[in-house]
Amino acid sequence: MGGLMTFVNYSCKSKDEFVEVVNGQRTMVVVMITKEIPRGREVTADYGVDLWFVCRCQRDGCRTVTVKINKIRKKSTARWIPHWLEVAARNLKLVMRKA
Question: How many CA atoms lie within 13 A of 33 on its CB side?
Answer without folding.
Answer: 10
